[in-house]
Amino acid sequence: MQWRGRLFWNRQELCSLGELPLFNSRRGSTCKRTILILSHCFLIRKPSSSRMILGVRNPAPGWSRQLLLPFQPMVAVGIFLFFLTASLIVFRFCSAERLHPFPREGYAGALLLVVAEILMLARVEPVTTYFTPIAWTGYIFLVDSAAFSLRGKSLWRTARTEFVCLALCSIPLWLIFEAYNLRLANWVYVGLPNNWVARQFGYAWSFATIWPAIFETATLIRALGCNPGDNDSGQISAASGSRSASFIVLLGAFLLIVPLLVPPGIGSYLFGPVWLGFIFLLEPINHRLGSQSLWRDFQRGDYSRLTSLLAAGWVCGILWEFWNYWAQARWVYTFPILQEWKIFAMPLPGYLGFPAFAVECFVLFSFLTLMLNAIFRKLGKGSRPHGEALRL
Question: Is this structure's pTM higher than 0.85?
Fold first, then answer.
């Protein structure tokens, strides 16, 4: 058997390692235990679907366990970035002054995360299939509780209606990007349930966590930075020029339309403009119509909300890719840019899109809140979204 130059090792080949002279020595038992630990921690399974994914037909039925040896350096970089990011947030939180005790929901969220990780590695259903939304649900409650303990208010604890509205709106808002992906083909989903209802349930649950994750993370980062929480105080120093606003709106429309008009082979390189387009298209409109606006923050000299969103995009991006890498039901990136240079499943240039996406989440939800309020006013409804989530 050829042992040198191999990238993938299956379980049968792994067991035959015991035949090597190395394992007959006194240190052999230690090596065997090390291999056993690795085989449980870094197993990669292929989905049972027989569809063509990236030109390779996946084996069916069942899942084929394979161990990646030697350990990929870029995966190690990703794990380092994950723990570095998490450690910085935890250290900052532990050293910050808290107004309230840590809520029970936070402990429940942390426990849910730990249990989900263990059950996912053990391949226990339905956690294996729904690991991504389960992990994000635990994370959202954990971060919400941390923000509450620092500020005395949070979306789940003190603005639950806004939290539910944000989660429900997250589904159609993300479907905008799924619609773009139908044309630009930048990612596919693998390892999904065969049952249609179970598959759609997983989609809805996963998509409903996207906007809450971004907003909760940005809120926590802003609280950790001791930034002012009131974004509506103070006078705007100067009026925005109508010509410059019109130009920015046209630029946003250009960024959103061009990727759809070019041939698909070229469009697959142009998802980057989509991550920016809605910012330029809608931010001037939000500012002009009185909705929550980053532009208005800039005119007051306040950049705290923008920097919190950018940092939240980075944090959530690392978490998305870390948890997705180990999940059974996951996404695989297919855009033709530096596919050989990945951290987890994401090629390196893709990480530049996460901070921009977080800002885009804010702008889209601000515009949607504006539209919902207008609809509720027209219908004469008293209860409507107040945009509490947008204040961060």
Answer: no
